Amino acid sequence: MNYVKNAWYVASWAQDLLPEKPYGTFILNEPVVVWRNADGELAAMEDRCVHRLAPLSLGRCEGDKLRCMYHGLLFDRTGAVVEIPGQDLIPAQARVRSYPAAEKHSWVWIWMGDHEAADEVLIPGAVGLDHPDYILGHGQLDYAAEARLINDNLLDFSHLSYVHANSFGAPEAWAYERPKITMLERGVRVERWITGESAVPGEAIGQPIERFASYDFLVPGVLLMTGGNFPQGTSQSLGGGAPDMSKALAGVTFTSQAVTPMTDKTARYFFSWGPHRDHGDEALRDTLMGIAAMAFGEDKDIIEAQQRVMDATPDFRIMPTTADRGVTLFNRLVEKLARDERTRLSVAS
Amino acid sequence: MNYVKNAWYVASWAQDLLPEKPYGTFILNEPVVVWRNADGELAAMEDRCVHRLAPLSLGRCEGDKLRCMYHGLLFDRTGAVVEIPGQDLIPAQARVRSYPAAEKHSWVWIWMGDHEAADEVLIPGAVGLDHPDYILGHGQLDYAAEARLINDNLLDFSHLSYVHANSFGAPEAWAYERPKITMLERGVRVERWITGESAVPGEAIGQPIERFASYDFLVPGVLLMTGGNFPQGTSQSLGGGAPDMSKALAGVTFTSQAVTPMTDKTARYFFSWGPHRDHGDEALRDTLMGIAAMAFGEDKDIIEAQQRVMDATPDFRIMPTTADRGVTLFNRLVEKLARDERTRLSVAS
Amino acid sequence: MNYVKNAWYVASWAQDLLPEKPYGTFILNEPVVVWRNADGELAAMEDRCVHRLAPLSLGRCEGDKLRCMYHGLLFDRTGAVVEIPGQDLIPAQARVRSYPAAEKHSWVWIWMGDHEAADEVLIPGAVGLDHPDYILGHGQLDYAAEARLINDNLLDFSHLSYVHANSFGAPEAWAYERPKITMLERGVRVERWITGESAVPGEAIGQPIERFASYDFLVPGVLLMTGGNFPQGTSQSLGGGAPDMSKALAGVTFTSQAVTPMTDKTARYFFSWGPHRDHGDEALRDTLMGIAAMAFGEDKDIIEAQQRVMDATPDFRIMPTTADRGVTLFNRLVEKLARDERTRLSVAS
Lengths: 349, 349, 349
Fold this sequence. Notes:
3 copies of one chain form a homotrimer.
Chain A: E1 8-13, E2 23-27, E3 30-36, E4 42-46, E5 60-62, E6 65-67, E7 74-75, E8 81-83, E9 98-99, E10 101-104, E11 107-111, E12 137-143, H1 147-155, H2 160-163, H3 173-176, E13 180-184, E14 187-195, E15 209-218, E16 222-231, H4 234-237, E17 250-263, E18 266-275, H5 282-311, H6 325-348
Helix pairs in contact in A: 1-6
């Protein structure tokens, strides 16, 4: 896998991680256990006891420490073994790796790279479930596919016209009109005006509108998207530029999505979606989540099928199209960041 | 896999392939999509979009064309991309492989080799479900085993006395008497006279009979078998030769069977069986199909078990017996044809 | 796998192997068929026909012989082919390997090494289900893990305090006090005095006691354990030495356990447990078996999880603790025996 290590990866929904219930997962092929003490404070470390490799996620929380429940080694939050039952001396190598962890925007984020580089400023600005402006539903989905394929999917919304012809009912314009794509420091911004049948699904349209949709796709694989409906002609009057979202007539929603590479061929996908409080209610949120359940299932079907074909194809090649511009720019950025990491590492050593 | 590419492989029952419902399969490790337009005309091509490898079998038929439902690339029947949404220029390499396809004898056949060599004359003469002389049932079965093991099974009917002791109730003679085996241009012919308890299962025997059974096993893996009951002594009077089937007293049936290698360790097996209209009716056909369901399950059990043992045996060897003569002759023919193909290929390039 | 071949491996419970019902299994990655003739006499051989590798465990017993039910080859108890249907000459290489087999202590044992070295004296002295002194329950469990990991588990009972905190309710002493470990010719002996809450589960304690527990763990992976309750102070009066088990106040039980490596990542675990007739009855046996079902499930959970983490860890290392002494001594013995076998083999050839 060619992924950035110096980045915050979503490990779970914050509310799903209960105090003293360690949770084992994989991120970038590494087994990771995330846990909270009784006060709810987070810790994350290698999910693999230094003794005989039992997963610590089957362990027991004891105050600020986590005990391996195979032979009883006790670990502190830094990953150091602080007790070996019946043994006085604790060897210096008796430790596992720890990971910086943070709870923000309703997600638990894990930093997979150098501890010194871990800066919470780099956590993407997702909209949490408790955000006062939005009424959000949420969910998650496991993929039998490489995370990069999901990123690629999210970076090219031309697929909406085909994959989601039934769920979103997206107009052909999604495939035929090229969005404006801007490089960001750690991602790309994708902006579009869509005319025609382009309201939020489930929303009544009283007048001719056009819809603005904009998302940032940020390292390591986080999509932050908003959109809204404006009177016909707004796009033209702005020269195709971005509108002031607070002036939207209706249909303003926000979705935060995060793709976490677990292993080479598995990934976990976290998402929330819902209307702005001024443009919808719990009923609209539930409608949107019903559509999302269908649409994200469509994505999963095509991406897992794509993965199976790739697996059956030795030395496969892809043939990029102009619609791939966002995909290409983002993947190039990831490659550059990953290369820089390796260079720093080889200079340091 | 060592298989012949210049051959017609059965992809499906013709009646199961509905207009505008693309069907994805694997043949010789290659992903293949087979589809019909609204008029029922067949096309077959690589089931792998040139853009990002999504399977075209999840695509949408549009007249004579097939659209990839990931990002909308449109393919004609030759495999050429004729439209990329939102992109004017279509690169020369924007195409996937196509395969000659034919509908004949109730099966859809795909030619996996050179287009120029595809000749429908080479389609084995199976008896289709609509044949006026026979009342046929049909079915198919998926194997977790290499196709060659199924071919080997069908090329040596000595297994009838053991594998099918319960279903066919075949007499020991199947194992003890050697059939007459004749080389054909693209296969072998296997002929036998069986005496003793040798009626078609389910058929009443009013007088002492003996049964003649003959099948051709043809490249790439198609069995065409008929048989019938004759008065005792017929075999001797013919010097063991083949009788005139139209003179059979009773019990004339026909079975067509095709083995298609999907991947290295999976295969699909298609079959039909039933009585000649003069020697049976729908009730006998149903009896035969019940027996076939049991017998083909017995074959699957032993062959899949054999595959598992082979998988657990590094560098395994087999020890041929005299009963293997048909197996050996057919496999040698396949090896020769496959070798000739590679030679022609290396001369051509 | 690094295991001893010159050893008796448990293939099955003797009572589960019915006359003329061949049973196929794997031992040390080799397919083995074990079977009894109508008189109940045992035979064991390679579960792989020399003809085309079909498993003989799908075969038919015919007196003292076993017939492959694919094409009818007939094998005698030494693995030699004695009949090939329809073929007069039987080639010299027409044989499969046979294995010495023995029924003892309610188990069927298979010797996986040199025939000449097979000596029933080397069968570990398990307590069979028909032993007059014990009332035993029994069972077996399949593992998706390497046998060595189960051996390691059984060689270090410090895990009782953690893995089995809920089932056995083992006191912390199991982890904190080091047992006395003695090398045996083909294994290790592990002896412990446990004070505190240490009765047999389900047994009422009328007076302050201490419990003695002792087991031998023998090549290839057989645990033979007994224990009993003694008046407080017994341990001290014996200087920590082993007591006379016949003087136990109560709580004497016996458990025999055997770990059989099937393939690199699968194993079968056989076990019996129950009270001495003087110290319990069928009801106590059933209580113990209920606890064992829970406890052995806990072992399976942690060991299979450990295996998954190992599989996800290239070039993993373990960090032994002092509690690993029994593990280390036993594994060193196995390595030495396996090395000696290979040396003898290379000298012999």
